[in-house]
Amino acid sequence: MAEKYEYEYFNVTFPAEYVAHVEINRPEKLNAFVEKMWLNLSAIFRRLSHDPNVRAVVLTGAGERAFTAGLDVKAASEGILSRDSQDPARTANAIRRHILEFQNCITDVEKCEKPTIVVLHNISYGLALDLSLACDIRLSTTNTAFSVKEVDIGLAADIGTLSRLPHSVSSLSWAKDVCLTARIFSSDEALRVGLVSGVYADKTEAVQEGLKLAGEIAKKSPVATMGTKEILNYSRDRTVEDGLRYTAVWNAAMVQTRDVKDAMLSGLQRKMPNFSKL
Q1: Separation between Cα atoms, residue 103 and residue 23, nearest integer Å
Q2: What is the pLDDT of residue 82?
Q3: pLDDT on residue 88
Q4: How do residues 17-33 score in pLDDT, each as one tens digit?
Q5: CA–CA distance, 21 with 36 (Å, rounded to integer)
Q6: CB neighbours of 196 closer than 8 A, spacing ≥ 6?
Q7: What is the reported pLDDT for 91?
Q8: DSSP secondary structure string, 192-214?
Q9: What distance in Å separates the CA atoms of residue 205 and residue 199, rounded to the nearest whole number?
C-alpha cells in the first residue's frame, strides 16, 4: 500500500492498485490557487514520481463548479506584486525568482516519472491550462469552459501555457487566437485541435474513464511506461535524429530487464504478467 499523503488543499487517494488520484480541494473558491497550493502540488508530484507503489496518476478538481478557476487574484494582489520598491532591478529580480519558483512547481508535474491523466470540468481557466498541459493525457466534459485568461488581467501567461500549448495542438494560429483574446472555448473545440483526447458527458463519467485509463497503464511494465513518457517528452522539443539517438541510449540500458521477457511470455501463455515495483 502507498504511504499516506496529507497535504492542505489536496486529497490524495489510491482507488486501485498502483493508481493515485490527486484532487485539488478548494471547491468553495472554485479551486483557485493560493501560494501554499503551488508548493503542495509540487511536493505531491515529486513524491509520487518516486513512489514504488504508484504507476499512474489521475488529477481532478473537487466540486462540480470548476477544475480550477486559476490563480486566486485577490491573494496574488496582496503578494509579491504589491511590494513597493524604489529599485526596479531588485523588484524585477524578486518577481523573476517568484515566477521561476511557480514555473518549477508546474514542471514538477511534467517531470513526474509516472504517466499523468488530467480530467477537466466546468470552469478551467488560466492555471488550468498551465497545469493540464504539464500532464500526459487530457480528458474533459461536455460542459468544460476553457480560457487562457491572463491577458484579461494585464499580463502574458508566464507559468507554461505559452511554451507548451503550441506543442500540444494542431494549429499555431488557433493557439495565438485563444491566448491573445482570452476567449472562452468549449470541449468540442479543444477536441478538434487536439488539446484533449476525449470528451465525456459529465464529471463522474470523465473521472471514471480517467481512472480506467490509469488502471490500464498501471498494468504495464513501469520500466516501459516511464521510458515511453521520457522519450516522448524529450523528442517533442528536438529533431527526429536527436530523439532516435536518445532512444537508442535509453533502451541500451532499459531493455536489460526481466519485464521484457515476462511481457513476451504473458502473450504466449495468455496470462497477466506481474511486474516488480520500480
Answers
A1: 20
A2: 57
A3: 85
A4: 999 999 999 999 999 99
A5: 20
A6: 120, 138, 139, 140, 187, 190
A7: 84
A8: HHTS-SEEESSHHHHHHHHHHHH
A9: 10
Quick check: helix, strand or coil at residue 219? Answer: coil
Summarize pLDDT for 34-52 with one digit per residue, the tens: 999 999 999 999 999 999 9
Cα dihedral sign for 66, 71, 77, 78?
A: positive
Longest dimension (CA), the chain: 73
Q: Round to whole Å and give the CA distance between 105 and 107.
A: 5
CA atoms lying within 13 Å on the CB side of residue 43? 13
Neighbours of 272 (CB within 10 A): 8
* Cell numbers at 126, concatenated: 488560466
Mean pLDDT across the stretch 185-213?
98
pLDDT confidence of residue 4: 87
Among candidate residues 33, 24, 42, the one with its CA nearest the CA of residue 106: 42
Cα dihedral 62/65/68/70 (nearest 10): -150
pLDDT score of 191 more than 60 = yes
The number of beta carbons lying within 10 Å of the beta carbon of residue 278 is 17
Residues 68-96: what's their mean pLDDT? 78
- Helices (H) and strands (E) in the chain — how many of each? 11, 10
Cα-based distances in Å from 205 to 18, 199, 249: 21, 10, 40
Give the residues across from 61 on adjacent strands.
24
Tell which residue, 158, 135, 133, has the closest CA to residue 146.
133
Model confidence pLDDT, tens digit, residues 229-251: 999 999 998 999 999 999 999 99
Q: What's the whole-number mean pLDDT along residues 130-141?
A: 98
- All cell numbers assigned to 100: 521561476
Domains identified in the chain and CATH numbers: 10-218 (3.90.226.10), 222-269 (1.10.12.10)
